[in-house]
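Pasting as-is:
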Amino acid sequence: MVKKKYTNYRKEAKSLKYEVDEPVELLTFLLKVMSNRSRNSVKSILARGQVTIDDHIETKYNYRLRPGQTVNILKNKAAIKENVLIGMSILYEDEDIIVINKEAGLLSIATEKEKKQTALHQLMEYVRRENPENRVFVVHRLDKDTSGVMMFAKSEQVKRKLQDNWKEIVKERTYVALVEGQVMKEKGYISSWLRESKTRLMYSSQTPNDGMHAITHYTRIQSNEEFSLLEVQLETGRKNQIRVHMQDMGHPVVGDKKYGSKRRNAIGRLGLHAKVLSFNHPATNKFMRFEADVPSSFLAKSR
């Protein structure tokens, strides 16, 4: 089996880094530091996902920068020349699977509005450089604004094996969630039946068998009066499960306006990160474990 290890592609490419020293909107900041470029050129750089702030991709012109944040701009020519993967890095690859660390702001798969700036599209282009017949298949998904560990299959056969035997193959799926307010219980779990509304909003039902059963376990890592950092383990893997269950607890995920957050977003992204994915390899049955560091903004806000 041929194995490849990777460092973060973003660090290998030529990029521009700037420290923020005063509150300012992102577009205004970029126009200042990239004064040699036109307004439309700077807007295009933003739209292509070439700008990151601390630990997430940012594409909003009016994103409010705070002193102490770091703005990183990946040059487009460097990205093309060095075949850089934007908004993700490869943690592991062999002939059967690819495991990545996805940044918040990158789509897992295409939508009606965005076809190319996705993890799947970039990986497809990446494997086809070696052989035009190569392909990549989605096994599971992370929401656009959720960061962390994600796995793809390199054949239809491996994809089917992983999806058909997901509960047996996957040993651990651990997330960290930065939630609003101080969670008083050190440990706990939430159990409910999840249903989807006509507007595609998930919600909990306490009536047995009224929907898909979902169980979420949590452990408090650290907290203060404003925020709590939780380690969350899924016993089931339902759509938006963590986000709905945190809302049910009265402690919505930071930045999650869809599921109960009413405060100003203190970290500029959704407070959800897929920290650990461990599984038995679909071909060799070897145990494998991958971990993506907790975003620094999560740790800083919950101290």
